[in-house]
Amino acid sequence: MKRKLFTLLTVLLLALVGCSSEGSSGDGEPEKLDKIVLADAGWDSIRFHNSIAQRILEEGYGYDTEVTVGSTPATLEGLRQGDINVYMEVWTDNVKELYKEMTDAGDIEEVSTNFNDNSQGLYVPTYVIEGDEERGIEPLAPDLKTVEDLKKYPEVFPDPEDSSKGRIVGAPTGWAVNETMTAKYETYGLDETFSYISPGSDSSAVATLVDAYEKGEGWVGYYWSPTWVTAKYDLTLLEEPEYNEEQWNKDFGTAFPPNDVVVAVHKDMPEQAPEVVEFLKNYETSNDLTEEALNYMNENDASAEEAADWWMKQHEDIWTPWVPEDIAEKVKSSLE
């Protein structure tokens, strides 16, 4: 009986040890990775940067890769839990509290700044303010300069569902920045003369802009750079009061703060794939470099993967220093 009991306890103990060591090696250290999972939070630039990283990880370092698609909060939670390993484009100030919570807790690690020369806010086509002589368009709102000035021109941006108001096209539903834009809309008192709509996706928002732009009509809405949209169309960012942290924390009633767009990894990555983390520490682009690829995607109806391959051929001088020479040669051979 005692022998049977001892055997049973031994089996239970081994089972518990097995459960506690899942995802780690026998000595409690994180297991090395065979596959690296990247986050896709729903916009083209993150897909482009994912594709560059995947090309280097697969062809240079021999890893399998996978992409997990979801909203910003969902993919960040995936990064925190380790279901996602790498996040190539975290817009840190759009998720300021959550990002600080995760980094302070040591759940994720920021390894580099992808770019920090971006902008975001309410844009209008420049012809709305200046006109377009070539297209025969007169200025629709010649004194429009700031978000506050919008109150003088609701009729320039008519809401097709409410003729008494103008319409602002907000950020897509499910994006963290949509909450910020909704708060701004109320803080600036635009709710008195404008309706605010949250399109279901980025492509839906762009469709409204393109339709208005081609007709030479008024359009105002949230957008950001770098995108192929801001690269292709002549748009003007409406001014807001200079960024002030106290005011921002109160009601978002200022311009967006400087937004570092960073590369972040799960806390175990430095031990699971140290050579990958070293590569990502060197990863750095810019607004213009990213827009170049996004414009290529649009003009050539290209996928993010095709744009990444094209971009890497154009800019060997930029990406090859991110990795050791032998890794760079493997990647370059795969691009031929």
> Residue-averaged pLDDT, rounded?
90
List the total number of helices.
Answer: 15
Distance between the termini: 70 Å
Q: What is the overall shape?
A: globular
Largest sheet composition: 3 strands, antiparallel
Q: Enumerate the spans where pLDDT stays under 50 for 5 or more consecutive residues.
A: 1-23
- N-to-C series of helices and strands: HEHEHEHEEHEEHEHEHEHEHHHHHH
Q: What would you note in describing this structure?
A:
By secondary structure, this protein is of the alpha+beta class. It is about 45% helix and about 20% strand. The protein has a 3-stranded antiparallel sheet. It has a 3-stranded antiparallel sheet with strand order 9-5-10. β6 (about 160) and β7 (about 160-170) form a beta hairpin. It starts with a helix and ends with a helix. About 35% of the residues are buried. The model is unreliable at about 1-25 (pLDDT under 50).
Write a brief structural summary:
With 336 residues, the chain is of the alpha+beta class.
Fold blueprint:
Elements: H1 2-20, E1 35-40, H2 44-60, E2 64-69, H3 72-81, E3 86-91, H4 96-104, E4 108-115, E5 119-125, H5 126-130, E6 158-159, E7 162-169, H6 176-187, E8 194-197, H7 202-215, E9 221-225, H8 228-232, E10 235-237, H9 245-251, E11 261-266, H10 269-272, H11 274-281, H12 287-299, H13 304-314, H14 316-319, H15 325-335
Parallel strand pairs: 1-2, 7-8
Antiparallel strand pairs: 3-11, 4-11, 5-9, 5-10, 6-7
Helix pairs in contact: 2-12, 2-13, 2-15, 12-13
